Structure formats: structure tokens, C-alpha cells
């Protein structure tokens, strides 16, 4: 598919070349487009208006160019948006969860973009609207609610918001009796707070100028922020900090960690002035986290070489590591993902052979059982309970063909109660679709799981287009869950596929280890192998595969574009981490020190430098033919900064030898997560899907598997 066949022949923006030279480990490299990084990038995150005019002019030109090339899809995008919106229940509401005398939930109003937080009496009744996100968002180009957390006495609410997209959240305190905010406003936070036991104040982490949550403060209601008491400061820039609370409101947990090492401190929730108590000092490669179980802590950890994790216990008054006792042993190949504890039960979510399951142990008798499911591939979410003294927990279930369901599960009687099934207002018949789980052979013989979805009437003769999604970093597992958006492609004859490549924990911790640091190349070759397998099995053809990934999945997109451009008919890279070498070399950037355990530290290690340089998408763009590419970014993104895709796009255009276009769409009012509203985000999805349909020649295709024009 070439530019002349589906895209108008228009001149693209040309970024000026302003070479800057850098030397590391005796290696000299020149960056022609380093100027696209604003010198005042920290200020831009908080106030986009201060962006350098020359950079803004270039980004505006990029937006104008991609708009012109996608102009003929305007009607298609409107149709896609209407379809996807039609599958969302506009006045949706969650099933409230019980906590003491009340039950708390979220809802949306018809046409509303933002969630609303409400509560009722414990067993139902009239709703009291505690916070209306749409009302708070009025007049703002960007607005995202971070959280809303009620105090233990149910009298106040902490709520957080970001109105720039830069993830510098502000916190406010609302009096529930009057439904008005108090004078407290805390700025530059991570987005949430944890109440003390009395509800007189809360703990929060503050984000520094480099966007690192390194300081924990305690705020007394009614005090000024400058008078907040510093509780703990993490001085190592490679470790981030978060704060949490226990289910019994007895303890405050201070969690510190990077991608492979963790450390926790505890504070009695009824004594905010107490000195934090260390549970176990950090040890490189050792991870652990705590949950309260009455007179003990249950500790999920990988100590003693337990790569797939085990659960230990320790007395709450002596939680140090020398007092840990094994409760649930490691089962190699079956990774424990998280755990929770209640008065009579210990519960954990594990993943076995790529599929999740929930295990429950009676703390009195030691008897264990699993919650069983019938489908071949599915997604589970362990939602647990807000109360400790309970026999009932909540979980969610879905598959690629089954809309999400929420259940209450009685751990004692083993009865499950269906509370809610995701409503698809425009209609959905699971029998119209087929979901399968394939195993694609990787280049080294490993078998890569692939989850696929297609309409039952889609021909599997190699002619169907395919959207192939991948991520493959940080141990993140991509669930085979229900996705209303992708049905707009599947109903137009697409095969939708998820590649469960190395770098995630889809097949246990070893699957993650073999896709990070000096084994990162496996992530990319696995994805290419999945594309080849889908073609070999006649699900699609190489010129019909549109690859899709975001963030670290955008790095994947950039790498496979360099390594195997002929294997794909198009590439969609959202907020792509494509300038990985320059970013990981710059310790002033928000996430860089935290990233070294994941990628390596090219500052101190020549081997790490050379390995990252060998696959870095920006560094390896060369004079070759590339498929059509759509890159998307947000100006105030602190995770993957806007200049990474801006530079990548400029270099691609300068070096590639074909006529296929490279489009760059940048949201000048948003950050890493894109548009903040539930429907405005659908407009971005519709744009991506319109690009996929355009490059595969399916823009005139009708819905529901009918013949393409």
C-alpha cells in the first residue's frame, strides 16, 4: 500500500536540523533534532503556554499535516465514534461497595465525560452525590479526576484532580455534610491521600520538579500546605514512593521501590506523629508488599529466589524479615500477582499457563479452593472487599467475546452472585464472534501466546486485515478482556490479536526476565514472530497487518519498524518511547533513574549503552522503506515526553526511501493518557482505527462482515 493509493500527495513538515553532538563511552553521536526538546520542559508541564514558539509552530504544523492527510476519513471517524459510543451505557453506574453504614459507588450521567462519586445507605436507598466530575471540569480543556477517598468516620472526602495532563495532581477536602470543599488545597501531589485513623488529617506524597514522588507529608485538616509535616524523604532518585492504608485503618504503609527492588515502612494510623518503622531494608532484586490480617501481616515476596513469589506472614508487632514464616509456597511457573486478607480467609490472584485464577484459603482450617471458569481465554480482576470482617469478596470477569461481569463471591459457601453485566446498548451477540488462543513459535523455540478475536463469518484465507497489539515491558500482562472499541474493526472484517510477548508476566516471572535488559530483543522478535505466525495460519497477510502499541509498546512499534518493516502494512505508535537511549542517559528526566533496572544504565555501563543503542528506534532509523506510520503524543506527558515522537517522525521522514507518509498527532492539551473524558478519548481511538482502515483499504467496508467495497 503506497502513499499515492490512499493518502493525498501533500508536503510534510520538515524539521530544521540543528546538530548537537554527544559522547558516551568513547562513542560520538549526533542528534539533528535535539532542539525539539524545550529547555523549560518542566515549566511547560505545568503551563503549556510557555512552550518555545518555534517548537509550537512545528507541532502545530504536524497537526495540520496529519489532519489534511486524514481529512477524507472525517465521516468514517464520526461513524466509528458513534458506534463505540453506542456500545457504552451513558448513564452507567457501578455496584456500590459496602463500608460500615454506607455503600459507595461511581456513576455517569447521560452525555457526561467524567465520573461522579455517590453513596447510599449500606443496603441501598437514595443516592447522595458527593462529587460531580463534570461540574468540576467545566471550562477546562483538560480535566481528570484521580481519586476520591472517604475518611474512616465517613465525614470527609479527599479528592484529587489534574487539569493540565502533566500528572501534577491537586488535592482538596470536601465536607460531606455540606458537600462543600474546605479551604485545604494541596498541590503537586501524586493524586491521592490516606486518612489517619481519626479522620483529622491525611498522608500524601509530593512530586518534585522532576516529577518524582520522593517526600511523604502529613496534612492536618485546616492547616496550610507549607506547614505540613515531612514524614519521610527518599533521597535515591532511582526509587519512587507511594502511600497506602490497611483494611482495618490500623496502619499506614510507605512503599518504596523501582522495577525490581522494594522496601516498606509502617506507621500506626492512630499516631501520625510516630516514627516510621522499617519492615525489611531494601535488597537489590528482592520485592515484597504487605497486607494486614488482624494480628499478622501477610507478605507477598520473592525472597530466597522465589521468582514466581510466595506469601509469608509476620506478627504486626514484629514484622521484621527475621520473623517471616512461609504460608503459601512458590509454585514455579505459576506467579502470584496480588493478595488480600480477611478475618477468616486469605485470597490471592495467580496466573498459571497464562490464565488468571483466584485462590482462597480458610485461615482456620487451611482448606484451599479456586474459583472455576469455563472459557479458554479470559480476564479476571480481584476487587476484594472494603471490609475485613466479611465472607464476601467481589471479582470481575470478561473474555474477548463476553462483556464484563461483576460477582459477589461467598468464600464460605462458594456461591457466586452476579451483580452486573456490562450493558452494550447497541447490542452484542457473543455467538457472532470467535475467540481463540494460539501459540506462535518464536525464533528461539519459545511459544508465544496470542489471543485473537474475529467475526464468525470472517474468511480465514489470508485476506482479512489484522490489528496486532503488543506491549511487552515492566512485567505487565495484557488481559484477554472484553473491548467494545475493537468491535468496530472486527465488524469490518478485521482480526483483532493480542501478542503476549516476553517482557510481560503472561507466562510467569521468567517470561518477564527474558524480555528485559540484555534480553530485550526477545520482546521485538516475539512480536514479529506472532505476525509471521498469523500469516502462516492464514488469519491475515503481511500487507494487511497494522501493528499497535503505546508507551513502552510504542518502543516496540519503533523497534519492529526498523527490524521488519516489510512484515506490516501500517504502524500505530501512541505516546511511543522511541528515544530510549537519550532518555535513559538523562537522569534529570522524570522516570529515568527508576528505569535503569528495567533497561540497564547506559551512563555507567558501556555494555548497557551499546545494547540499548542496538535497538533504540530513534538511533536506528535508516535509509529503507517503512510502512505508513501514525504517531500520537501529548504535550504535557511526563512519562514519554512529546519530543521523543517529534524527533522520531522528523528523522524517519529525512531518511526513509519510500513514499508512505508518517503522521504525527499531538494533543496540545493532554499528557500520557490522552484525552481525559470517556467520550473524548473515543475520538482518539476512532482516529487510530480510521488510520488502520485507511492503510488496509477498508474505509468503504460495511459493518458486520459484509463485503468490502
From TrEMBL:
Keywords: Hydrolase, Protease, Serine protease. InterPro entries: AB_hydrolase_fold, Pept_S9A_N, Peptidase_S9_cat, Peptidase_S9A, Serine_Peptidase_S9A. One of its GO terms (biological process) is proteolysis. Gene3D superfamilies: alpha/beta hydrolase, Prolyl oligopeptidase, N-terminal domain. Residues 483-698 form the Peptidase S9 prolyl oligopeptidase catalytic domain. SUPFAM superfamilies: alpha/beta-Hydrolases, Peptidase/esterase 'gauge' domain. One of its GO terms (molecular function) is serine-type endopeptidase activity. Residues 13-421 form the Peptidase S9A N-terminal domain. PANTHER family: PROLYL ENDOPEPTIDASE-LIKE (PTHR11757:SF19), PROTEASE FAMILY S9A OLIGOPEPTIDASE (PTHR11757). Belongs to the peptidase S9A family. This is S9 family peptidase. It comes from Phyllobacterium salinisoli. The lineage of its organism: Bacteria, Pseudomonadati, Pseudomonadota, Alphaproteobacteria, Hyphomicrobiales.
Amino acid at each position: 500500500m503506497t502513499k499515492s493509493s490512499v493518502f493525498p500527495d501533500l508536503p510534510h513538515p520538515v524539521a530544521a536540523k540543528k546538530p548537537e553532538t554527544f559522547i558516551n563511552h568513547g562513542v560520538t553521536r549526533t542528534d539533528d533534532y535535539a532542539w525539539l526538546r524545550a529547555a523549560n520542559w518542566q515549566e511547560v508541564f505545568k503551563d503549556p503556554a510557555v512552550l518555545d514558539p518555534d517548537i509550537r509552530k512545528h507541532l502545530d504544523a504536524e497537526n495540520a499535516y496529519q489532519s489534511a492527510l486524514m481529512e477524507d476519513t472525517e465521516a468514517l471517524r464520526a461513524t466509528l465514534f458513534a458506534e463505540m459510543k453506542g456500545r457504552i451505557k451513558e448513564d452507567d453506574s457501578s455496584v456500590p461497595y459496602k463500608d460500615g453504614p454506607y455503600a459507595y459507588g461511581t456513576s455517569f450521567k447521560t452525555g457526561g465525560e467524567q465520573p461522579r462519586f455517590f453513596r447510599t445507605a449500606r443496603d441501598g436507598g437514595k443516592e447522595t452525590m458527593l462529587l460531580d466530575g463534570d461540574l468540576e471540569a467545566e471550562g477546562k480543556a483538560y480535566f481528570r479526576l484521580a481519586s476520591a477517598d472517604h475518611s474512616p468516620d465517613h465525614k470527609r472526602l479527599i479528592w484529587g484532580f489534574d487539569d493540565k495532563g502533566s500528572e501534577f495532581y491537586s488535592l482538596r477536602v470536601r465536607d460531606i455534610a455540606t458537600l462543600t470543599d474546605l479551604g485545604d488545597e494541596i498541590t503537586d501531589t501524586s493524586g491521592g491521600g490516606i486518612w489517619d485513623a481519626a479522620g483529622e488529617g491525611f498522608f500524601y506524597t509530593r512530586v518534585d520538579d522532576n516529577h518524582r514522588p520522593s517526600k511523604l507529608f502529613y496534612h492536618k485538616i485546616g492547616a496550610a500546605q507549607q506547614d505540613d509535616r515531612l514524614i519521610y524523604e527518599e533521597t535515591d532518585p532511582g526509587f519512587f514512593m507511594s502511600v497506602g492504608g490497611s483494611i482495618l485503618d490500623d496502619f499506614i504503609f510507605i512503599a518504596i521501590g523501582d522495577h525490581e527492588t522494594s522496601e516498606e515502612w509502617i506507621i500506626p494510623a492512630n499516631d501520625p506523629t510516630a516514627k516510621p518503622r522499617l519492615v525489611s531494608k531494601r535488597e537489590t532484586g528482592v520485592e515484597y508488599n504487605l497486607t494486614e490480617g488482624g494480628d499478622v501481616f501477610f507478605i507477598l515476596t520473592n525472597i530466597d529466589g522465589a521468582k514466581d513469589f510466595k506469601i509469608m506472614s509476620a506478627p504486626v508487632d514484629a514484622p521484621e524479615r527475621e520473623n517471616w514464616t512461609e504460608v503459601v509456597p512458590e509454585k514455579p511457573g505459576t506467579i502470584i500477582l496480588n493478595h488480600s486478607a480477611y478475618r477468616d480467609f486469605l485470597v490471592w490472584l495467580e496466573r498459571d499457563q497464562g490464565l488468571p485464577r483466584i485462590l482462597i484459603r480458610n485461615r482456620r482450617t487451611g482448606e484451599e479452593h479456586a474459583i472455576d471458569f469455563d472459557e479458554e481465554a479470559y480476564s479476571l480482576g480481584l476487587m476484594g472487599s472494603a471490609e475485613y470482617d466479611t465472607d464476601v469478596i467481589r471479582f470481575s470477569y470478561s473474555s474477548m467475546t463476553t462483556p464484563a461481569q461483576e460477582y459477589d463471591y461467598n468464600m464460605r459457601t462458594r456461591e457466586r452472585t452476579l451483580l452486573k453485566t456490562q450493558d452494550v446498548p447497541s447490542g452484542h451477540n457473543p455467538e457472532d464472534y470467535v475467540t481463540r488462543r494460539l501459540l506462535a513459535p518464536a525464533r528461539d523455540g519459545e511459544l508465544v501466546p496470542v489471543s485473537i478475536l474475529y467475526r464468525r463469518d470472517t474468511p480465514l484465507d489470508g485476506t482479512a486485515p489484522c490489528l496486532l497489539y503488543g506491549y511487552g515491558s515492566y512485567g505487565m500482562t495484557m488481559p484477554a478482556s472484553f473491548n467494545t472499541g475493537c468491535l468496530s474493526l472486527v465488524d469490518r472484517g478485521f482480526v483483532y490479536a493480542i501478542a503476549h510477548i516476553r517482557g510481560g508476566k503472561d507466562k510467569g516471572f521468567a517470561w518477564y526476565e527474558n524480555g528485559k535488559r540484555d534480553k530485550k530483543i526477545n520482546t521485538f522478535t516475539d512480536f514479529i514472530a506472532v505476525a509471521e505466525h498469523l500469516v502462516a495460519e492464514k488469519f491475515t497477510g503481511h500487507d494487511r497487518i497494522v501493528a499497535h502499541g503505546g508507551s513502552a509498546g510504542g518502543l516496540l512499534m519503533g523497534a519492529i519498524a526498523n527490524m521488519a518493516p516489510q512484515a506490516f502494512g501500517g504502524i500505530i505508535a501512541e505516546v511511543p518511547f522511541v528515544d530510549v537511549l537519550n532518555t535513559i542517559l538523562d537522569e534529570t528526566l522524570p522516570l529515568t533513574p527508576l528505569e535503569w533496572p528495567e533497561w540497564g544504565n547506559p551512563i555507567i555501563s558501556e555494555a548497557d549503552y551499546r545494547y540499548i543503542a542496538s535497538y533504540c528506534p530513534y538511533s536506528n532509523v535508516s535509509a529503507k522503506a517503512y510502512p505508513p506510520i501514525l504517531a500520537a503524543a501529548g504535550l504535557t506527558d511526563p512519562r514519554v515526553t512529546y519530543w521523543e515522537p517529534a524527533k522520531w517522525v522528523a528523522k524517519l521522514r529525512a531518511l526513509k526511501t519510500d513514499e508512505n507518509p508518517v503522521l504525527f498527532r499531538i494533543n496540545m492539551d493532554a499528557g500520557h493518557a490522552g484525552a481525559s473524558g470517556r467520550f473524548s478519548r473515543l475520538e482518539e481511538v476512532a482516529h487510530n482505527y480510521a488510520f488502520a482502515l485507511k492503510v488496509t483499504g477498508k474505509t468503504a467496508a460495511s459493518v458486520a462482515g459484509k463485503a468490502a467495497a
